[in-house]
Amino acid sequence: MSDPSIAIEPLRFREALGHYASGITVITSHIDGDPIGFTCQSFHSVSMSPPLVSFSVMSSSASYPKIRQARRFAVNILSDEQVDISNQFARRGTDKWHGIEWRKSPLGNPIIGGSMHWLDCEIYAEHAAGDHVIVIGEVKALDLPEVAMQPLLYFKGQYRNIAAHSTV
Description:
Helices cover 14% and strands 45% of the residues. By secondary structure, it is mainly β. A hairpin with a 4-residue loop joins β12 (158-161) and β13 (166-167). The longest helix is centred in the N-terminal third of the chain and has 8 residues, at 10-17.
């Protein structure tokens, strides 16, 4: 049994968490005429009644204060054909929306074209947690298309394709 008083090395912790496959989303909002968005893999469901979802974002995020101000966001769940979009929205200091097709959701949030599906949310609660903020959103609208698509997954530091069981 290991000694619980021993500090966990950040790189080792990150490597351990990388062994958990996750879907990839882009969290988006719209304020003052400008679309906002960032890639997020720390997304999950919270509650069925009321319908709540959650994501975590770095406290130092440049995008999240604008989303907080808007009090609403969309979760764009990416398909396995959207690796470039995931990479584009993960970059800091660039025009993340260059060449991106999108439309407004019922709440006015950007819905990225080609996404597997989306959830339209209002901020329900926030919780500070270490170097992150846990954001809980109440789902107000959603779209689950009938088209069969595969999710974009991330595992051990690489994008994965669930259908092919290989790296994308």
